[in-house]
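The instructor's notes for this session suggest beginning with a concrete chain rather than abstract definitions. Hand out the sequence below and ask the class to guess, before any prediction is shown, which regions might be ordered.
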Amino acid sequence: MTTMSDKQPPAPLTDIERVTLLCVAGHMIPASVEYGVPGADDLRIFADITRSIDRDREALGKALQVVNDLSDGMILALSRAEQAKRLAEFRTRHADLAGVIESVVARCYYRDDRVMASIGMEARPAFPKGYRVEQGDLSLLDPVRARGKIYRDAG
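After discussion, reveal the predicted structure:
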């Protein structure tokens, strides 16, 4: 029987995985002088990303390998324009793996204090105070409701 204490932490990123992820993160969310925000390749944000991989480690490793395979071995060896082209191809051909990278990067980017402040949010955890969410147009959910039940009752 495996217990929580028996679980091994995920393997750290290899050097190639680390630089590949840094490159991809910078393309996903570049720094903006206009909005005064760092890119996802900012060293503080990137350190948070690498600490927060956990359950996504295996899929992330596969995604980064595919990125490099589509880039003839190493995305960093390409020009910035060619990197963007290969990453667009990756996102189109491997949406599931691209989603893993997007999730890993976005969850850390949007908890950075500088980013939170730039979008007008108080840089703090949501709990216990919560955040006020403005009421939107609930009719936007009509297509989802019309789809009907897409789950199986557990009980």
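Then share the key points. The radius of gyration is 19 Å. Residues 7-124 form one domain.
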